[in-house]
Amino acid sequence: QVQLVESGGGLVQAGGSLRLSCAASGSIFSINAMGWYRQAPGKQRELVATITSGGRTNYADSVKGRFTISRDNGKYTAYLQMNSLKPEDTAVYYCNADSLVGVTWGQGTQVTVSS
């Protein structure tokens, strides 16, 4: 099994920055892609960004140029650097790992952007 623990959420003013971290443990050798998703109140969970073990990235159009996903394979940790935050970025952010044992989700971390 794979376990994921997110950290780094919080309250920030519009235009500010936050950095989310996702630490993986367990069957980490089997992890391929990792990603960040978010879910705002009353909305469906949506993809924010993904990164493969080889470093290939993919972003939602709404965050391109503002958010950067990265991973440290040595520390088995993925990061999401969020700059120029907007109120519409307010959501619970979930880390995701796709591995040989299946898809694993973290518990989520709240990000709130005030106007």
Task: Summarize this structure as a short list of keywords or feature phrases.
single chain, 115 residues, mainly beta, 4-stranded antiparallel beta sheet, 59% strand
Q: Nearest-angstrom radius of gyration?
A: 13 Å
Distance between the termini: 40 Å
Indicate the low-confidence ranges by residue numbers.
Answer: none
Q: What is the number of helical segments per DSSP (H or I, 4+ residues)?
A: 0
Determine the fraction of residues in helical runs and give it as a percent range. Answer: under 10%
Q: Mean of the pLDDT scores?
A: 94
Beta-strand portion reads over 45%
Element string (H = helix, E = strand): EEEEEEEEEEE
Question: How is the main sheet built?
Answer: 7 strands, mixed
Instruction: Give the total of beta strands.
Output: 11
Write down the overall geometry.
Answer: globular
Task: Describe the structure concisely for a colleague.
With 115 residues, the protein is mainly beta.
Overall description:
With 115 residues, the protein is mainly β. It has strands spanning 2-7, 10-13, 18-26, 31-39, 46-51, 57-59, 67-72, 77-82, 91-99, 102-105, 109-114. Strands 2, 4, 5, 6, 9, 10 and 11 form a seven-stranded mixed β-sheet that branches. The chain has a four-stranded antiparallel β-sheet with strand order 1-3-8-7, with no helix packed on it. A hairpin with a 5-residue loop joins strand 5 and strand 6.
